[in-house]
Amino acid sequence: MLKSKVSDRWLDAAPHSLMTLALDVVESLYGPPARDKAGLSLFALERELAEVLAGTVAARQLVPALYHRLGVAGDWERFFSADNTLMDRVLARRRGIPVSLGILLLHLCERFGVRAEGICFPGHFLVRLWCGEEESIIDPFTGKALGRREIEQLLRGARGNLARLKPEHLEPAEPMDILARLLNVTKAVFIRHKQFSQALACSQLLLKIKPDCPYQRRDRGFLFEQLDCDQLAAEDFEFFIQHCPEDPVADVLKAQIAALDLGPKTLH
């Protein structure tokens, strides 16, 4: 069940750190104990990193220390796993995917006074950080600095061989946009593993961020349908059809609504 008091905090005027938002997701799905456990793992990592960085220039040593000394790494073997998207598990294992490790890297940069920003790059989250006036773009999956050629290769991998790198691809992302990216990936992971209740919880959180997004309403409708909540599914499908009548999916959803069982339920 979605813990509404957590997501309701996102509507406050006060800004929240990206790590706080990511931990809110954990609490919404699994309750305060999971969040508390994540907090202990984060504190332990911060303490270890502080010991490694003692007497060094944090801006130059933070990434090497994190990835080489403290064991943070991208999980190649189980990329599409909730273990790599939910921050309590990411912190416990020190493994993740680009967006979850990117959130961790951004948090630690803030914690140790390193200027950094997230980039919602197509297909692969990136982090830009500075050492003085020197700027680097880091792949949070590997901890390596990327040159233009490597960034272009990532772009072509996501958008095709004709894609060309543009300045807007490397613009900084707002915290809520980064959180939405994490939630979308987490939702997709749960759907992949047929964990539809958890995927629905992610959809509900995404709709806290963008309440009138027809595509999120459409996706939630599919999840309601999987959970046999036909009336709720029909309402979301109708919302999408009303707001995106020219979308080819709209005709498919009309047929889908007709096939749903929208009659009153008989109680036995």
Automatic annotation (TrEMBL):
Span of domain Protein SirB1 N-terminal: 47-184
Signal peptide: none
A Pfam short name: Transglut_core2
UniProt family annotation: Belongs to the UPF0162 family.
UniProt protein name: Protein SirB1 N-terminal domain-containing protein
Lineage, broadest ranks: Bacteria, Pseudomonadati, Pseudomonadota, Gammaproteobacteria, Aeromonadales
